[in-house]
Amino acid sequence: MIKELDTTKIDHLREKIEGIKRTDKVAIITHVSPDGDAVGSSLGLYHILKNKGIEADIIFPSRYPESFTFLADLEIHTIAKETPEKASRILEEADVVFSLDFNDPYRTAEMSDSLCRSKAYKILIDHHLDPTDFSDLVFSYPMVSSTSLLTYTILSLCGYKELFTLDAITCFYVGMMTDTGGFSYNSNDPHIYTVLSEMIELGLDKDDVSARVNRGYSIDKVRLNAYAVSNNLTVLPEKKTAIITLSKAEKNRFNYKIGDTDGLVNVPLEAKEILFSIYLYEQSNFIKLSFRSKDPFACNLFASSYFSGGGHRNASGAEFYGTLEEAYQEVLKALEKMHP
Description:
Radius of gyration: 20 Å
Strand content: 15-25%
Shape: globular
Number of helices: 12
Largest sheet: 6 strands, parallel
C-alpha cells in the first residue's frame, strides 16, 4: 500500500463520489499528447464510475496513439483538438471534474482556460512534482510510479473493488506498464506487484495486453525508428549523452502517426556508456524535447534549469519554440553546463 496516502482525503473523495446525482455532469481530463498512463488512468476511472451508474465524459486534449485503441470505450470520448467547442462545453457544464496525470492546467493545451474557468468541483490525481493550485481536492504523490497505480489504489481504498471489471483493470494495467517501461524502471516498489497480482486474479491477461501495446506496430513505425537510430543519433561520449532528432519531413516520409516514436528516447540508454538520452522532434509549431536518464543523473533538473520543463527524475520533457537546429544548439550549450 502507498503509506503516504491521506485517509481523510480518501474519505472526502468517497463522499464526493457517493454524492454525485444522476443529473450531475462529470468530466475527466488529462494532458495533451496522452501517453499510456494518461489514457489508462482516465479510462480506468471512467469504467469505475460507469459501473457505479455515473456517466462521465473524458476529454483528451489531443489524439492518443493507435496502440491503445483496443481499450474498451476509448474511441467514444472527446478529442479537444478535433472538436474544441464540444470539449469546452463539457468542462463549462460539468459539476465535477477529475484531472488526471498532470500538475498544471497548461498541460491541457487549449483546454487550459476552460478548465480554469470551470466552476465544477475539481479533483486532481497525479504523480508529478509541484502541482499548481487549481483543484479542490488534491492527490499528488510523485513517489508513485504511475497515475494509474495511484488511481487504482485510491479507488480501492474508497471501497470500490467490486466495480473493478476486466475493462477497468486492463486500462489501469496499461498505464502502470507503460509508465515504467514494462516494469523496467521506477518500479522497485512491492505495492506495484501486489496490485498486479490482484489484477491477474481478477482475470487480467497481462501478456496479451502487453503484446497488444508493444507488438502491434506498423512496418512504417519500425522503419522510422530504425532510420532515427541509424541516421540521426549523435553520441557525446565525454558527456555520456546521446541525442536523436527528427524533423516533420523525416517523420512524414514514414507516414508518421501519433505514438510512432514512443519509446525511441529510451533506446540509447540500452548502451552501458549512455546515462542521458535526449530526443528532439518537430511538432506543428514547436520542438518537443524528451529526456530520459539513468541514476544518478536527474534529467528533470536539466529540463527545468534550461528549458522551463519538468517531470520525473529519470523521465521528463520540455518545449522549445524555434527551429529544430536551434533547439539542438541550445541543448549542446546546456550540456556544457550540466551533464552526467
